[in-house]
Amino acid sequence: MTVTRLREIPGIGVDVIGEQADAAADPELLRLENLDTDLRPPAVALDTTRAAIEQDAANSYLPFHGHHALRRAAAAHVGRLAGRDYDQDTECVSVAGGLNGVFNTLLATVEPGQEVVLCDPAYAGLVNRVRLAGGVPRFVPTEAGPDGWRVDPERLAGAVGPDTAAVLMMSPAMPTGLVLDGRHWTALARACDRHDAWLIYDAAMERIRFDGRAPEHPATCAGLAERTITVGSAAKELRLIGWRVGWVVAPARILADIRLVGLTNVVCQVGLAQQAVAAALAAPDAEADVAAATAEWDRRCATVLRQLADYPVIRPQGGWSLLVDAVPLGLAPAELSRLLFERGRVAATPMDHWGPSGSRYLRLVYANEPVERLAGLGERFRAALG
Is 313 helix (H, G, I), strand (E, B) or coil? Predict the structure, then answer.
């Protein structure tokens, strides 16, 4: 590396497996490596995007902080879930996708050398952004059980200390599908208040839950409303991956800094996409649309769990992916990935560098393959492992 800021920032692995899968050009290959989905975006978003191509206003840098309709829709959306009102002008800014929002927020809240608390395992892209912002990841182990992943609320809160700048949480988490609830937010509220830390809430998948329950937004917890920075995205729940539109909703006292980082970093978002995302967020059937997509992802997840019932697979509580523990199989995740690719025609990503425990897991994404193809996954595993 030529610059020190990159020395502890490895790749994410997904790009490597994805390129191998693309190069294979094999229609029989199961694409379980990348966080894509084949479920179509909301029709209103597609129609609005097509219309935007003919609009001069969509071919513009302005407004730099996001179209008014998008900020209005995003502020209202987060406000409904958070149980409070947000001002679209002073407490909401548009960003170029959720991870851009996370990075901008980290740059606005973390001094070099300060800690950011994350759950382990964690998406490498989040960990890498903490490091790129100059922060030090502090991992809290999560535990896998028959019903999925768990993390003790007090253990989570106990990781927050005098060197903590922020707690970065996602629920359901990627890649585990871990869901956090009011117990976790209550414990974190006390800890964040004690140490004057921010809670950065990655809400990209908050409605993709398989328990039928509504999201439990941290800002509904007493003591966290003024400390919670919500980063949302159109990529997962709305299936608008290629639109690259997200939002950050936060108290005005920090939102101004996040907006300044965004103006300095990406400058503005995709003009052709913002009105489409606004329309999808505000549509009368928006909740029903997300619920229908979630039901299909749940069906696909259940298919994978049935197919791999004889393998060490951990049940997710939501999201788009689940993990296979390679250790009981006597394999490193990279070797398991290779065997599945070569013998089973399955593309799946080993989780090296996805937190301290990532080196024992392989990730399977079930959001991008129909049930009919996933129904043969067990046979493919047997072909790979014997």
Answer: strand
> Of all helices (H) and strands (E), which one includes residue 246?
strand 246-249
**Cα dihedral 100, 137, 225, 232 in deg (nearest 10):** 20
Q: Which residues pair with 318 in a beta bridge?
A: 209
Q: Which residues of the chain have pLDDT under 50?
A: none
* Longest CA–CA separation in the chain, Å: 59
- b/e per residue, 336-358, with b = 16+ CB within 10 A? bbbbbbeebbbbbbbbbbbbebb
Q: In the Cβ-directed half-sphere of 278, how many Cα atoms lie within 13 Å?
A: 21
**Does domain 43-282 bear CATH number 3.40.640.10?**
yes
In whole angstroms, give the CA distance from residue 308 to residue 176: 16
Q: Where are the domains of the chain?
A: 4-41+287-385, 43-282
At the second CATH level, the architecture of 4-41+287-385 is: Alpha-Beta Complex (3.90)
Name the token pair of 293.
């997509």
In this structure, is the dihedral angle defined by the CA atoms of residues 66, 244, 4 and 118, taken in order, positive or negative? positive
pLDDT at 1: 58
Angle at CA of residue 336, ends 333 and 337, nearest 5°: 85
Burial class from Cβ neighbours inside 10 Å (0-12, 13-18, 19+) for residue 335 reads: middle
In the block, residue with structure tokens 């005098």: 162
| Half-sphere exposure in the Cβ direction for 69 (13 Å, CA) | 15
Backbone angles phi, psi at 86, to 5 degrees: -120, 140
CA–CA dist 70, 91 (Å, integer)? 13
Q: Which amino acid is at 220?
A: T
SS3 label, residue 75: helix
Q: Are 259 and 108 within 8 A, CB to CB?
A: no
β-pairing verdict for 164-170 and 115-120: parallel
Contact indicator for 258, 93 with CB cutoff of 8 Å: yes
Are the beta carbons of 167 and 196 closer than 8 angstroms? no
Give the per-residue pLDDT at 300: 98
